[in-house]
Amino acid sequence: MAEVDAIKDQDTIRLIGHLLERRFSKQVSDVWCIGLNLALRISDLLAIRFHDIHQDRLFLREAKTGKTANIQINPKTLQLIERIKQEHPNHEYLFQSHRNRQAINRAARPISRRYVTRAFAEVGQELNLKLGTHSMRKTRGYHLYQATKDIGRVMKMLRHSSEGVTLRYIGITQEDVDKDFVELEL
């Protein structure tokens, strides 16, 4: 799997969402926007069912780690989720595949990870970025760290067990640490 980056610029974050909608679909753009706000791995994000959401909280068991995620959903994300629910009141999954409509007797399924991965990669290539599905999680972690400088909070949000792993994950390099030492004079 290719290494992907956190997106550090707010304008680029918005541009990615716009391009995903224009080049692929509103649904893929919603994956980007909601994924940025929930900081889940793509397999967990695509597996969200509407019944996993209780008022302003999301409860799920992470597939990779088995850890329980109990996430408070911010108002922007709640609005997106509510719009999706209103547009597709019979859907079971937040990001349900529309191809299932063609197979009447088939169980509902979310859109495929492969489709989302391809969409992100193509937009990333267009913008000359290492963009992938993990970019959403990394971006959320990076921006929380920049806002708080509290690696413990970022670790807890990403459900990591090591500071070093978290710092590498969100793209904090020795160069960034050096810059902090130079810019912060006491």
Report on the architecture of this protein.
There is one protein chain. The chain has a domain at 10-133: Orthogonal Bundle (hpI Integrase, Chain A). The protein has a three-stranded antiparallel sheet, with no helix packed on it. The mean pLDDT is 90. It contains nine helices and three strands; from the N terminus they run H-H-H-E-E-E-H-H-H-H-H-H. The longest helix has 15 residues, at 113-127. A hairpin with a 6-residue loop joins strand 2 (57-61) and strand 3. The chain is mainly alpha-helical. Helix 1 packs antiparallel against helix 2, helix 1 (10-23) packs across helix 5 and helix 2 packs across helix 6 (134-148).
Residue-averaged pLDDT: 90
Largest sheet: 3 strands, antiparallel
CATH topology of the domain at 10-133: hpI Integrase, Chain A
The secondary-structure class comes to mainly alpha
CATH architecture group name of the domain at 10-133: Orthogonal Bundle
- Cα(first) to Cα(last) distance is 43 Å
Strand order of the largest sheet: 1-2-3
The percentage helix is 40-55%
The CATH homologous superfamily name of the domain at 10-133 equals Intergrase catalytic core
Question: Got a strand count?
Answer: 3
Order of helices and strands: HHHEEEHHHHHH
Shape: globular
CATH class of the domain at 10-133: Mainly Alpha
Low-pLDDT runs of 5+ residues are none
Layout of secondary structure:
Layout: H1 10-23, H2 26-38, H3 42-46, E1 53-54, E2 57-61, E3 68-72, H4 75-87, H5 113-127, H6 134-148, H7 151-158, H8 163-170, H9 174-183
Antiparallel strand pairs: 1-2, 2-3
